[in-house]
Amino acid sequence: MKRVLVSGILLAFCCAPCSLGEATTAGDTDKGPAEMTLQTTLDPEKPPKPAVFPHGAHQARLGCKTCHHGKTAEGKRLSYVAGQKIEKCETCHNSKAGMPEKWGTFKNAAHVLCQNCHRKNRPELTECKVCHKK
Predict the structure, then answer these.
(1) DSSP code of 115?
(2) Would strands 51-53 and 77-79 be described as parallel, antiparallel, or unpaired?
(3) Which of 33, 82, 108, 111 has its Cα between 20 and 30 A from that of 50?
(4) What are 19-76's pLDDT values in tens digits?
(5) C-alpha to C-alpha distance for 125 and 91, rounded to whole angstroms
(6) DSSP assigned state of 104
(7) Alpha-carbon distances of 6 from 18, 30, 43, 55, 123, rounded to whole Å
(8) CB 38 within 8 A of CB 51
(9) End-to-end distance of the chain based on CA atoms, in angstroms?
(10) Which of 72, 68, 66, 62 is nearest to 89 (CA)?
């Protein structure tokens, strides 16, 4: 009887889905890396300095829709919907896309979005050296 009980417990333990170490991995994979280096690849003539972006720190305070969005068939901004595929910013924000200058490159779009938010909330983070490390 003991042998059957021990075998049953071992079998149940081996067949049960194990979440040790996986609980954070599955959720975090969908959210992107904790830190990113933002660098344009589509507008290489005058590539700006790469920017270090603490993605995880922003996720802890802001919703995805604060920064991410999609576009309609006409090219208009479409609000982010949970679970949508997140494209690289420069997919649309590049010099060949024909957007207004303010949003026309990845660099310009990032500066408008990031600097406007930081001016309102953390003005000390608007200095170039904060994101563009040497």
Answers:
(1) H
(2) unpaired
(3) 82
(4) 222 222 233 346 788 999 998 888 767 777 899 999 999 999 998 999 999 989 888 8
(5) 26
(6) S
(7) 19, 39, 64, 47, 63
(8) yes
(9) 69
(10) 68
Encoding tokens for residue 46? Answer: 């005058």
Burial of 12 (0-12, 13-18, 19+ CB in 10 A): exposed
CA 79 to chain centroid: 15
Nearest to 112 by CA among 129, 95, 93, 133: 93
Residue that has been written with the tokens 């310009």 in this structure? 108
For the stretch 18-22, contacts whose Cβ atoms lie closer than 8 Å and that sit 24 or more positions apart, written own/partner, are none
Give the span between the Cα atoms of 104 and 96, in whole angstroms: 8
* Residue keyed to tokens 């901004």: 77
Closest CA to 66 of 27, 44, 57, 12: 57
Give the sign of the dihedral formed by CA 11, CA 12, CA 13, CA 19: positive
pLDDT at 30: 62
- Output the CATH code of domain 33-131: 3.90.10
